[in-house]
Design brief:
Bound molecules: adenosine-5'-triphosphate
Number of domains: 3
GO molecular function, one term: ATP binding
Protein name: Sugar ABC transporter ATP-binding protein
CATH class of the largest domain: Alpha Beta
Number of strands: 24
CATH superfamily of the largest domain: P-loop containing nucleotide triphosphate hydrolases
Helix content: 25-40%
Structural class: alpha/beta
Largest sheet: 6 strands, mixed
Strand order of the largest sheet: 6-9-10-3-11-12
Strand content: 25-35%
Radius of gyration: 24 Å
Pfam family, one: ABC_tran
Keywords: ATP-binding, Nucleotide-binding, Repeat, Transport
Organism: Cytobacillus spartinae
Shape: globular
């Protein structure tokens, strides 16, 4: 039989309604056996809801799902796994104290009489790990491995259950470049072995690198399913967003950068994490922080904000030395930190959008102990428009929004604050191309209003496109500071990877 002609999954007329939102609206398309199929769309387009439908997490929906020609209605994820339909979660949850093999076989261990047959368990797990060319062994303790390696365990677990289709939801978000390369080579091997891959990502380069076909969803509707090689980047984005959007970070206005130093950091250290980091931030500029995963960029900005305790060095705000010991003090001194991990650090689960967006301003909205609701709503509505939140309802619970829209709420919360210095850690991680462009425009507006911004980002085109100056970190040290004139990704990578260094004794 010709490759890629037989369907493994057939979605027919799938609809799913949440209160006030039609998350999926009559979606029909096929996934072919042995292909790498991308599922694309803006934040809130319905991608996760469709994955949940396939994997038995969402079991109340209209329409039918067929697996290998048989209509299925899984009651839970386990039933899907028994059928070889496996999802690799963004945050892989393993039991860190157990061995890799125990995690892989968990709940399905081979037995010898009453007892678990550990010899067989490790043999079987090691056979899968070596097929995947993993450098760790079944006998290793899972908790000692890196994020990328943990993802490998999750894949191995899928293969242990004879996976025939594996879904990935933004799998590269927390991986180093090397880990991404390893993951792609494993995904390609899986495909060679006839395993089907469903791949959700906002990183379009990856989609062009590894996917065969793609399906675009927009507002819960199926827009098109096509061969990746038949479209270019601009065409793909237009299908996703429904309009022309620049996929690249670009400044559209001249920089309002001044010579006034709003933040001066000298020899800042957090013992055992990073050492002697010095830099300053001018009023009206964007200062970019680049570096590979593990370069400790996030720790530096957290220490400035008071979320990590410094062990040495000084921080000055507008020329005055400050000793920030807690995020609360950081906020009081005019710093806002939009964290990378927005789900756990960014918003209050039981609040709606209006309350979450207004969090940093509640004191301002309150007079004599009474909250001014009109002001709170005006504030929220302004930012909902500005960041194009979907659904654009201030009373919608933030925890019910799609992942990307939750991030927009957290960003809006800080944009609406009075912070003079805004620090954004991976501001567009998990955010779709349309929303990225909107966030970049908001940043420019903030500069015009006299704010100063630090952007920490793993996406080099983003750091290069946005920053006036760029600091490169490597292994807990600042290794280079660039004026951003005609810089290339290679210039930055040379320092980030340690090919070049302005610091002699680097690494701590
Ligand atoms: N549990 C829920 N309760 C209410 N609404 C929900 C729930 N889950 C999803 N939705 C809504 O369904 C729509 C589709 O969300 P979904 O998470 O499927 O989007 P997505 O394409 O995966 O987005 P992202 O790229 O941001 O992860 C959104 O409008 C979202 O707010």
């Amino acid at each position: 039989m010709e490759k890629h002609t037989e369907s493994i999954v057939k979605f027919q007329n799938i609809s799913k309604v949440f209160p006030g939102v039609k998350a999926l609206d009559g979606v029909s398309f096929d996934i072919k056996k042995g292909e790498i199929h991308a599922l694309l769309g803006e934040n809130g387009a319905g991608k996760s809801t469709l994955l949940n439908t396939l994997h038995g997490v969402n079991n109340v929906y209209e329409g039918t799902v067929e697996i290998k020609g048989r209509k299925v209605s899984y009651k839970n994820a386990n039933e899907a796994i028994q059928d070889g339909i496996v999802k690799i979660h963004q945050e892989v949850s393993l039991i860190p104290e157990l061995t890799v093999g125990q995690n892989i076989a968990l709940g399905h261990e081979p037995r010898k009489g009453m007892f678990i047959d550990y010899k067989k368990l490790h043999q079987e797990a090691n056979a899968i790990l070596s097929k995947m060319k993993c450098s760790f062994k079944s006998e290793d303790i899972a908790g000692t491995l890196s994020t990328g390696e943990m993802q490998m365990i999750a894949i191995a677990k899928g293969l242990y259950h004879n996976a025939q289709l594996i879904s990935f939801d933004e799998p590269t978000a927390s991986l180093s470049n090397q880990e991404v390369r390893t993951l792609f080579s494993i995904i390609n091997d899986l495909k060679e072995n006839g395993i089907t891959i469903l791949y959700v990502s906002h990183r379009l380069d990856e989609v062009f690198d590894i996917c065969d076909r793609a399906t675009v969803l927009r507002d819960g509707k199926h827009i098109e399913t096509f061969n990746i090689k038949d479209v270019n980047r601009e065409q793909l984005i237009k299908k996703m967003v429904g309009r022309d959007v620049s996929a690249y970070a670009v400044r559209t206005k001249p920089s309002p950068k001044t010579n006034q130093k709003v933040l001066e950091v000298e020899d800042l250290s957090v013992k055992g994490v990073f050492e002697d980091v010095s830099f300053h931030l001018h009023k009206g500029e964007i200062l970019g922080f680049a570096g590979l995963v593990g370069s400790k960029r996030t720790d530096v900005v957290r220490a400035i904000f008071g979320a990590e305790q410094k062990s040495g060095g000084t921080v000055k705000i507008n020329g005055v030395t400050v000793n920030i010991k807690s995020p609360k003090q950081g906020v009081q001194l005019g710093i806002g930190l939009i964290p990378e991990n927005r789900k756990t650090q960014g918003f209050i689960k039981y609040f709606d959008n209006a309350n979450n967006v207004g969090l940093t301003k509640m004191e301002k909205f309150t007079k004599f102990g009474l909250l001014n609701h009109t002001k709170k709503m005006e504030n929220c509505n302004y930012y909902i428009d500005e960041i194009n939140l979907k659904p654009s309802d201030p009373h919608y619970m933030t925890s019910h929004l799609s992942g990307g829209n939750q991030q927009k709420v957290v960003i809006a919360k800080w944009l609406s604050s009075d912070a003079e210095i805004l620090i954004l850690d991976e501001p567009t991680k998990g955010v779709d191309v349309g929303a990225k462009a909107e966030i970049y425009r908001v940043l420019e507006e903030l500069l015009e209003k006299g704010k100063s911004i630090i952007v920490v980002s793993s996406e080099l085109p983003e750091v290069l496109g946005l920053s006036d100056r760029i600091i490169v970190m490597r292994e807990g040290r600042k290794v280079k500071e660039f004026e951003n004139h005609n810089l290339t990704e290679e210039d930055i990578l040379q320092y980030a990877m340690g090919v070049n260094s302005d610091v002699k004794n680097e690494g701590i």
